[in-house]
Amino acid sequence: MSADYRKTTTDSDNANLRTGTECAALLYDTSVFLYRMNLPLKFTTDGLIPAIVQDASTGRVLMMAWMNATSLQSTLDTGLMHYWSRSRQKFWLKGETSGHTQKVVKFHADCDMDTLLFEVEQTGGACHTGHQSCFFQEIDRNGNFLEVTETRLFDPTETYAAKH
Questions:
Q1: Against a cut of 0.85, is the pTM above it?
Q2: Calpha distance 159→35 (Å, rounded)
């Protein structure tokens, strides 16, 4: 089945997006990419889609990050995970500073086509805190943080300090 998944916008869609040229470029990039891939992925009004990243060999969830059409395209083109940083408003390659890259093994979309799952081969730790996973902090049923028992794989002050 072939279908045109290019996004058509309404006034309410445009109200939630950047205005002018930025909005048009974002919609165009996302639309062209999705049309070419023939996937009905549902990006947010900001042009983002959540990506859950899981270790391909252990199944452990390593992190969750945001992707836009450009980062998804770069990920599929290179086989290495790329993301969009909402806080820095920046496109980034995972490991560009630390060297802790993520090589894509498998790529999935959920049943609603609004979340992606990537199974990866992780080099080094996935979390900027030095842990294997960003989900190292266990919380009990009362909302209390439990003692962190996982050992850090690297010292973030040494890994990131010299690079900034």
A1: no
A2: 40
Q: H or E stretch including 93?
A: strand 90-93
**Is 3.30.43.10 the CATH number for 40-161?**
no
DSSP letter string, 70-134: HHHHHHHHHSB-EEEETTTTEEEETTTTT---EEEEEEEE-TTSS-EEEEEEE-S-SSTTSSSSS
**Is the C-alpha dihedral spanning 159, 164, 79, 36 positive or negative?**
positive
For the record, the structure tokens of 121 come out as: 């081969």
Residue corresponding to tokens 């609603």: 112
Question: How does pLDDT run across 135-163, given as a tens digit for each residue?
Answer: 999 999 999 999 999 999 999 888 876 55
Give kind and range of the element (H or E) at residue 21.
helix 20-37
Joined together, the tokens standing for residue 127 give: 């979390």
Q: Over the stretch 57-79, which tens digit does the pLDDT of each residue have?
A: 999 999 999 999 999 999 999 99
DSSP 151: P
